[in-house]
Amino acid sequence: MVLELQKPRPIWAIMFSTHHTDIGLLYLIMSITFFFLGGALALGIRAELFLPGSQVISDSMTFNRMFTVHGTTLIFLFLLPFASAVGNYFVPIMIRYKDMAYPKLNAVAFWMIPPAGALIWLGFADFTWYATPPYSSIRAPGPAADMWIFGLKILGVSSVLGAINFIVTILKCKHPDLPLSKVPLLAWSFLTSSLIVLVAIPSFAAALVMLLTDRLGVTGFFDPARGGDPIAYQHLFWFTFHPEVYVLVIPAIGMMYEIIPRFSRKPIFSHSSGVFAFVLLSAVSFSSWAHHMYATGMSFTEKTVFMVGTLAAAPASAMHVFNFLATMWGGRLKFTTPMMWSVGGIALFFSAGAGGVANSAMPFDFITHDSYWVVGHFHLFVMGTIAFGSIAYFYYMFPYVTGRMYNEAMGKVHFIMSFVGTVMVFFTQHVLGLYGMPRRVFDYIPLPEYVVMNQIASVGAMIIGASMALWLFNMIYSASKGKEANMDDPWGLGGKYYWPHQAKNPHH
Amino acid sequence: MVVSGHSNWPEWIYVGVVIALLAYVGAEAWNVERIVEHAPAEAEVIKVIGQQWFWTFERADGTKEVGELHVKKGHPYKFEITAKDVNHAFNIHDYVILQDAIVGRTNAAWFAPDKAGEYTIQCREYCGLLHYNMRATLYVEE
């Protein structure tokens, strides 16, 4: 049992520790810090778009820098490290080992992230999170762009180190009595997502170096004026970052697999189908990268291949949704805060997936591509599914980490406000896209449809912002002054549903 | 596959239904795209050039228009789209025209406007400082 906040230690004892729970705690605090920083930028963006014309931001360059850093921060400095926090905390416990396989490497992988975050924030680049050349190689202002490139390079190395650690821990350090097929689905999610990281990241790592040398003027890989090909960058980029979507979503689904059965007071409907869907999802994640590139002038055959590859990802995702619903079916459900966040996340996951299937159809993509539809679509994944699953798990692990209980009423209000806000922002953005509003714009034509939709979205964003402020208060207050959690059964479910507490995990 | 001691057949039926739906979406999309991709032979070619932050339209006879494009209703046009400095995307949303304008490449799209009026042409790929304002007007005339 780990009661970090009930056994006060000097801060450096946690910072220089290599124990997996300490590193998990560091990941947790850092990722949530960046969540609030990136979220603040989102509120700035939504405030600016409340009305056409310039509102709170004086010039478009600042706006462009804001959405670039918003995206980069929330993907690389919130979602990924949050998953690592949960993985570090719980994977060794679930596979019954004393620590991660390489504790020092684990600490190194964590400590690479804050400097990378500092580079991204101090640089404040403007070329969007996917930094396409030739803009990024010949026009984007330095040193911001170069700092972004170095920051991403460091984050990539950190991801690879973390992935190696998870794979070795799960495959080589699990208890001999525990067959791989019986490993909990949360640990399976880290195994599959780490395998994707190892295969996917090198392609973008290469592209980043090529982009940097292009910027320095020594090469022209992506510069048509020097015989290069800007489309090559897009292939290298999406070969990493389409699978990366699954790297983010698979651990979030794994977290829901921990929560749903406990609060349904029923075993998971099918453990093996969950494992199968994870493995299938990680394989098909590599079959769809160029569906981001239909409009670059791809041939009909290429588009068809990537459309089929994209559709192939749907059955595996649908199997997860089925598994969740079948687990809840006939269960004695208890809608505590973690359960509400998980069920809300599944509903939004389904919506996001349905939008994705529609979007993969070639003719429809030419309506939605690079419009606000896409913004709404992927935010339903990153916010609606992944952040919802992550916040659900945050509430679920709260008593385990702090030994105290969060305020349940505040947690529920947090969920309801966030869910309403998320629907208001991102469903509306789908409609905005159908009206033809391009993404990444500082200003828009004052059509009445655009104005109304943007205002609904901005109000929704402010509701989410307010709910997150409530979360911050709940976290800080409950961690220090909350009432003691009943560690055998924090939610009064009756029975041993909160199993991590029963697991014996010796400190080294 | 059965671990929890119950039958899995509802899941297989469900997966079958999902796959059938996906196959329908895919086949329909394939069919529509196959039909809309080919420009008619008699279409008039208009060269579209994107650069930071305006559009230039050039016809076969050498006449040029900047920031506006005049076309005739009911007449087919084929756009040959390229860019001069960085990537842009040529978009007439009302006629579902969207193709990236890429330096060193020419992408094609075609349309035959069927309604007279003014339409917005915009850039839909981030291209820097004034990307949000990179617009032109399409005039469809009788």
Task: Give an overview of the whole structure.
Chain A is mainly α. Chain A has one domain: Cytochrome C Oxidase, Chain A (Up-down Bundle). Chain A has 17 helices and no strands. Chain A has helices at 11-15, 20-48, 60-94, 103-111, 113-123, 135-139, 144-172, 185-216, 230-264, 271-284, 300-311, 313-328, 337-360, 362-368, 372-402, 408-434, 448-481. Chain A is globular, with a radius of gyration of 22 Å. The two termini of chain A are 13 Å apart. With 142 residues, chain B is an alpha+beta fold. Chain B folds into 2 domains: 1-37; 44-141, Immunoglobulin-like (Sandwich), CATH 2.60.40.420. Chain B is built from 1 helix and 10 strands. In chain B, strands 3-2-1-5-8 form a 5-stranded mixed sheet, with no helix packed on it. Chain B has a 5-stranded mixed sheet with strand order 4-10-9-6-7, with no helix packed on it. In chain B, a hairpin with a 2-residue loop joins strand 1 (44-51) and strand 2 (54-59). The longest helix of chain B has 28 residues, at 9-36. Chain B starts with 8 loop residues before the first helix and ends with a strand. Classes of the chains: A mainly alpha (508), B alpha+beta (142). At the A-B interface, helix 3, helix 6, helix 10, helix 11 and helix 12 of A face helix 1, strand 7 and strand 9 of B.
